[in-house]
Specification:
Helix content is 39%, strand content 23%. The chain is of the alpha/beta class. The protein has three domains: 5-74 and 105-183 and 288-360, FAD/NAD(P)-binding domain; 185-283; 371-446, no CATH class. The strands form four sheets. It has a seven-stranded mixed β-sheet. A six-stranded mixed β-sheet has the order 8-2-1-12-19-18, with helices on both faces. The protein starts with a strand and ends with a helix.
Length: 447
């Protein structure tokens, strides 16, 4: 395979991992990042949203041999810890006893990946370089340095746009190509980062190995653990309305609201009011576009091609899977134009599927995880899965713990299972007979 001169726009999670994949194949890789080097700067609070690494992400990290190093900065979460408004706490395992998703700091993981990428002599990361233009026909890129305002031009054989949901590289596709399809859809909800600090001597004040959820119907609070004992909390909340960011306009309203709606969380959050008014309110967007490439010169990857909302914990995992699958395709072919074209065609059905499932899972997390009927439904699914693992794997497990199953296939099976479970839940006295042979036979017949 001939060595290529490659530019990557964006040194975020996907851009840094992609640089490692390409460097291992001997290509010269220049990465251009709009921000400064976060390893040398104080990280700005308020936009971190801890991430959940699951099997798809781990498979990509293992493919480049860095899984063990990342595990050092990750915490396993074996299930959801549901906090009711009256203080009851219920644990819902994600899968089998040995299955977990892993909490990682977005900033911490990004720093680690950049450092690992720079271990390769053929990788160089340029910071404070804003992408001003990419000529999609030649691969020539223009950047403006944020500190000096100087403009620089770079020639490349191939350019990857991995610069996130508001991608400058994608904008160049829109401006320079015909019939480029693009859509963005915002939720009516936004998010705000809050915090539960560590206790004395780094003690975790709530269960360490769980993702905590305070579901309240229409909105929710979540908390993910950090290595030093704190929890990063995120309030997913409407922008407008009676219960909304707009309505919580002063410190007293914020404290009163949390005392009423999240009573067991409030005592754990001594900086609540400061965090609430200091940290920005972020928006939640789904981005779809097509095609993802122009010839063999520019390819969009990760959020630049398919940003999704965070409610299935798959945005990063999907982006990491992009990197692994592209590398597997590169192993088989040196025809970059065909590679770029085929990659988008292969991945788009799966990215569309996980985008849809992520929005659907928001409704589940905020409205249903505390509902008795929903919990019974999940209990029946888990029981049938235990009896017939070859016939039934829940959609969540297919997405989270089955990295060889396409997202689109997980979505298809999930819809089929949903139809079956709707019928099961219509059985009279299902609450008493949920584990009966009648229920088992009905599921078998419909499968």
């Amino acid at each position: 395979m001939s060595q290529k001169n490659i530019s990557i726009i964006g040194s975020g999670l996907v851009g840094s991992l992609l640089a490692i994949f390409l460097a291992k194949r001997g290509h010269k890789v220049n990465v251009f990042e709009r921000r400064g080097d976060m390893r040398k700067e104080k990280m700005v609070a308020g936009r971190s949203i801890n991430l959940a690494l699951s099997d798809r992400g781990w498979k990509a990290l293992e493919a480049v041999g860095i899984g063990d190093e990342i595990r050092k900065v990750a915490i396993p979460m074996k299930g959801r810890m549901i906090h009711s408004i009256t203080g009851e706490i219920t644990f819902q395992p994600y899968g089998k006893e040995n299955q977990a998703i892993w909490s990682v700091s977005r900033g911490g993981l990004n720093c680690e990946l950049m450092t690992l990428a720079e271990r390769y002599e053929n990788v160089k990361i340029f910071f404070n370089e804003r992408c001003d233009h990419v000529d999609v026909r030649t691969g020539k890129s223009t950047f403006v340095n944020a500190l000096t305002n100087e403009t620089s031009n770079h020639e490349s054989d191939h350019v990857f746009g991995s610069d996130g949901a508001f991608s400058a590289a994608r904008l160049q596709m829109q401006l320079q190509t015909d019939r480029f399809e693009y859509s963005q859809h915002y939720l009516e909800h936004g998010y705000k980062e809050l915090s539960i600090p560590a206790g004395e001597n780094g003690k975790f004040l709530i269960e360490k190995n769980a993702l905590h959820i305070w579901p309240r119907g229409g909105y929710m609070l979540i908390a993910l653990p950090n290595m030093e004992g704190s929890f990063t909390c995120t309030l997913f909340f409407p922008f407008e309305g009676a219960h909304s960011f707009a309505a919580l306009s002063d410190r007293k309203k914020v404290k009163d609201f949390f005392a009423k709606i999240f009573p067991d969380a409030l005592p754990l959050m001594p900086t609540l009011e400061e965090d609430f008014f200091h940290n920005p309110t972020g928006s939640l967007v789904t981005v779809r576009c097509s095609p993802w490439n122009y010839s063999d010169k520019l390819l969009l990857i990760g959020d630049a091609a398919h940003a999704i909302v965070p409610f299935y914990g798959q945005g990063m995992n999907c982006g990491f899977e992009d990197c692994r699958i592209f590398d597997e395709m590169l192993e088989k072919s040196d025809n970059w134009e065909k590679l770029f074209s085929d990659f988008g065609k292969i991945r788009k059905p799966d990215s569309d599927a996980i985008a849809d499932m992520a929005v659907e899972n928001f409704v589940e997390m905020r409205d249903l995880v505390g509902d008795k009927k929903f919990l019974l439904r999940k209990k029946i699914e888990a029981s049938f899965n235990q009896k017939h693992p070859e016939l039934w794997t829940p959609q969540y497990s297919l997405v989270t713990f089955s990295p060889d199953v396409h997202y689109s296939e997980a979505q298809r099976l999930g819809k089929h299972h949903n139809t079956i479970m709707n019928r099961v839940m219509e059985i009279p006295d299902i609450e008493e007979n949920w584990n009966s042979s009648e229920v088992e036979q009905l599921i078998l017949s419909m499968l």
